[in-house]
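G., before I forget:
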Amino acid sequence: MNQQMYDLCKWAKDTALNNGATDCRARMTRRRFVEIRYRDHKPEVVKEATTRGLNLNIYIGGKFSSQNTPDLRKDALESFIKKAVENTGFIEDDPYRSLPDPKYYEGRTEMDLQLSDPEHGNITAEQRHKVAKTIEQVSLDKAGDKVISVEAGMNDSEWEEVILTSNGFKGAMQTTDHWAGASVTIADEGDRKPNGYFWAGARSFEDMPSVKTIGEEAAARTLDLLGAKKIKTESLPVIIENRVAGNVLWGFLSGLYGNNIQQKRSFLADKKGKVVAGKLFTIKDDPFIKKGFGSRLYDGDGFPARKRTIVSEGRIEEFLIDWYYSRKLECEPTTGGMSNLIIPPGDKSPEALMKDLGRGIHITGFIGGNSNSATGDFSIGIIGKLFENGVPVQSVAEMNIADNHLNFWNKLSAIGNDPWKYGSWLTPSLVFDDVLVAGM
Amino acid sequence: MNHINRRTFLKNSASAGGMLLLTPYLSGSMLTSFKSAQTGYFEREFGIDDEICQMLLEKALSKGGDLADVYFEHSLENWLNLEDGKVSRSYGNVLLGVGIRTVKGDQVGYGFTQELTKESMLSAAATAASLVNESAGTVAQSLKLLKTQNYYPFDPSMVEIPLESKLPLVKAINDKCFALSNHIVKVSAGFHDSTKRILIATSDGVKAEDILPRNFLYASTVGEKDGRTEQSWYNFGGRRDFSYYTEKLTDKLAEEVIKRTEKLFEAIQPPAGEMPVVLGPGVTGILLHEAIGHGMEADFNRKKISTYSTMIGKKVAEPFVTIIDDGTNPQQLGSINVDDEGIPGQKTVLVENGVLTSYLHDKISAKHYGVEPTGNGRRQSFEHYPQPRMRNTYMLSGDANPEDVIKTAKNGIYVEDISNGQVKIGEGDFAFYVSQGRMIEDGKLTAPVKDINIMGNGPKMLENIIMVANDLELHEGGAGSCGKGGQSVPVSFGLPTCLVKSMTVGGTQQKGGAS
């Protein structure tokens, strides 16, 4: 634990208590980041900075406020805290508001999740420039004479936090991340200029995919968008690609959250223990994946991280309920947010799935759209490829899918073997039967 | 309603029932001169004088570059929220720091720091300077204060509105909503206010200061009727003085949100496929934001990656279509006295009588095209470098009556409220999500519709605007924000009722089937 950050949190928490707060949670964060972008074989953007901030949750009985400041000079901070406590006094008393019962802090697994790359500090400016410059070149080469523009880049950061509460919670976390990718624009018919992208990331620099892979993938994905048009409205099987599956899954998950359930904005509020989706639909939460983007030892309330099964073969096993809404709902808390979301993968590649289906749409991107957490209705624009006889034949755009989540996840008929690696949602490709795709 | 985070545009929700009715060109009667009391803030509070600005600009250009700027910011943000009948939480956030930029052609070096010490600021300037390695660039010998108009005058003593003043407003919403309908089961409400103080100094000798207020009062309700649950959201706000938030306004807000929730109980899913779409007046201007606004941001065009990059001077729409992006509308959320590069707030005509006239420029793109900047260089905060961004984007009124527009559509969808949208710049393909609307059947408005995504293509959609009514409204909300390149800035919209010949409606039933 960073001693300086710990000392400041402790001082801030004590200052709040000395000024009339009955409880306090202090959280300090610090982040150092570097961003390099290349275009036309020269740096387009070079950006670098360190940020830090203190967040204080102040409780006076059931009166509550949460305040952030970047100004950590002690005299400035002292007057900030005094004023924050004074202002909290004007808020109405909420009988459900408190720090968690400390018994829920117990039982934390202590292990090294390897979230911080010890070599991060040794990355040089030259290395970063080389990554960005090389990806640009690889994408240019791959996209060939159709290319209009390639923007390639690398971002990396180191981040740490320290959290202390007046009822005994202590937490500290350090992470690093590294991202590299490119956005490619190419010429198509008329004034259409398809733009595609590929970005990949890893906790450790050495785990990054090669610049060749990244640059080629960005260009290939863009070339795939050539000649897109809308086709006639039709019911078809669709494969939603791994990296975009979260755009639809998100709307389902919104119904699982305690705040939506308590506020009567959840279409899943009365569905716990019930089957709402097909047998293939299982969602797990695993906070202990080494080097995972969502990995952690404690959650936002300070509860020890643990593995959970949220949905099992279509049946809802657990809601996502934080401390505050557990009190309002008069139930046991679980966790207020997912760590690494896992949908257990199947054993077929997207290409094999296409062969099995024969004809359908491979959805590789979404545009616009939204989902209503109260009703489960959603509607979202799609980008992708029509495939026939298992082979992609036509890019599609300006098309849309719409359904209700209580219906849609029952159509899940196969799952790919390709969980997405570059994020905290490890979604594989998902196949849905009989989806109405709106076009002409 | 919960919303998907989107790269391009996200706002919480809004309405077509905007209250501010505009004639084609806005009068200047609301404008006042910039109060002298608003200048000198960073010198008084943090000792940032011209000498320090000059020193940082010199450091930023010490290794070459065409121009440099420094951008100091001190922002205070507050949220006050009501849930289950109690104003039980408040959130506060402070932003303080300086961002320093070095520009060479179209290249940007950027450093920033939250510590306004000489050492930290010089270090940030050195980061920006590291972009180039040539002989030093030139910094003007002195800074001259830019005189600007004030499009959002407010009482400076209200920079921080006391909690005890805001609390009764929020509390009143709850009681009014429950009193208006016995279907309502949950009400949440809140007040958000922020004030952003900025100081900009540029290597060509311009100094500009501003205070930008942003505030809104919102209500969200959940209703239950005959086994159906529906929710809606509404807000009033903008760059307002606190005196805007009256009891009358809380009445209006409660009435609006309840009316919307009640209507949704009757809503159906429309058929899917291509059909005529009529956009009602007001917040539906999001259509322009997505279909043309983003594509006209000049960074995308100088890189030739926008579908509009070869269309300046060409006819893109019927002669009755004129589209404006404007930083000068009184109290509108996207208005700016000065942009974040020190260029005065102004109005830019994107499409004049059907012809594409101007992109939205920052300094980099203006230099690229050899034109004057248009005051569209905006940034989220001192942690970000400016990019060409929209302000308030709207279409001028046409001649038609709104009723005739609906009649002409005959069968299709009437859009009253849009919650979010997104565009692909290069293809011009865009989408927006309809949270409130109606079916048009045989030239008349019939059953309500909701939760549908509508897809289109920007240039095709412009060609397909076949009728524009005489009822332009600007949206009167304070929650709209636009995302681009990881930066969010407040924007607003406006539209008169207009008819688009055909767009793709994302319903759940085949056309001709049951709906």
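Residues 120-160+169-223 of chain A form a domain with the PmbA/TldD fold fold (CATH 3.30.2290.10). The radius of gyration of chain A is 24 Å.

More on Monday.
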